[in-house]
Write a structure and sequence with these properties.
Helix content: 40-55%
Distance between the termini: 59 Å
Strand content: 15-25%
Number of strands: 11
Number of helices: 8
Structural class: alpha/beta
Order of helices and strands: EHEEHEEHHEHHEEHEHEE
Length: about 300
């Protein structure tokens, strides 16, 4: 049920509005200590309250954007003022006194219908945006998200550079699994690998499928030592898991890792990606199933 706030000073007016609207809506009465902080779908406000709370009305409307929170102003017609001057800037509709029940109900329903449309549009926008940065195979993030996320956390002009560690990894024997069991099982295995690694990652860490059987883990605010300990857990988790058990296969997989950290190993995003990728290549070239990190190209 939609919630309607009656930000109206006169008790007589509030009672009348409540009688007219309570059949269809949940009525919320004003909080004198914390005005306009209630979670509602429509605000009905009178002239004196609008004059007193004008700046807060604007702030509340901005905080809800892009979702539409409608304000309906109860006002009177004066020869010296034009109530419509508020329309679009502070409120979304007017109700000129004397109050009429049918007109109030119609205007409230129309404003709430517009709010519902805006909520639906916001949900659809969020869904499309999520699809744009989600990898179809793993269900986690894709490379579009990778670049957007790194740009955001590394773009701190004038501030101390944040520590960020980047982990490239891919599966050592994945082609053999695909050749043996087919591409469909390969796709399922990649999804399972992603979930196994995700269980090791922290709340602020991000997992990206880079392409094929290659993934990237972004570890914000973690130095080389902290990241290396986490990568070792990732490596161990993959090696200890039996994949494709629902298909009665119980495949074993191993992975190679490359680790680089910002700002120790790179001065920008491009160098960070290149260094982590170079370390992964070195792990593959020197026998696979290992972790290589930038500092003196050590392997674990």
């Amino acid at each position: 049920m939609d919630r309607v706030l009656l930000q109206v000073k006169k008790k007589r007016d509030r009672r009348r509005l409540e009688d007219w609207l309570s059949k269809n809506y949940h009525i919320v009465l004003p909080n004198k200590q914390r005005p306009l902080e209630e979670d509602v779908d429509l605000v009905i406000i009178d002239g004196p309250s609008l004059k007193e709370l004008r700046s807060k009305v604007k702030a509340v409307r901005r905080s809800q954007h892009p979702v539409f929170l409608p304000f309906l102003l109860l006002t009177i017609r004066r020869s010296s003022s034009v109530p419509a001057r508020h329309l679009g800037r502070v409120v979304d509709d007017l109700l000129i006194r004397p109050l009429n029940e049918k007109e109030l109900v119609a205007r409230a329903a129309n404003l709430l219908r517009m709010r519902h449309w805006s909520i639906d549009l916001k949900k659809e926008h969020d869904r499309v945006m999520k699809l744009a940065i989600t990898d179809d195979v793993s269900g986690f993030n894709n490379t579009r998200y990778l670049h957007r996320y790194l740009d955001r956390i590394l773009d701190t002009p004038g501030a101390k550079p944040p520590e960020v560690s980047l982990v490239f990894f891919d599966l050592d024997n994945f082609k053999r699994l695909v050749d043996t069991y087919g591409h469909l099982c390969g796709t399922k295995a990649l999804r399972e690998v992603a979930h196994v690694v995700h269980e090791v990652l922290g709340e602020d860490d991000r997992l990206v499928r880079y392409g094929g059987d290659e993934f990237i883990a972004i570890l914000p605010r973690q130095n080389k030592e902290e990241a290396l300990a986490k990568v070792e857990r990732m490596k161990r988790a993959i090696a200890q898991t039996k994949f494709l058990q629902k298909e009665d296969i119980s495949a074993r997989l191993k992975a190679s890792f490359g680790l680089a950290s910002y700002p120790q190993d790179a001065k920008d995003k491009r160098e960070l990606l290149a260094e982590a990728d170079r370390c992964l290549f070195k792990s593959k070239a020197e026998g696979k199933n290992r972790i290589t990190f930038v500092e003196m190209d050590q392997a674990a």
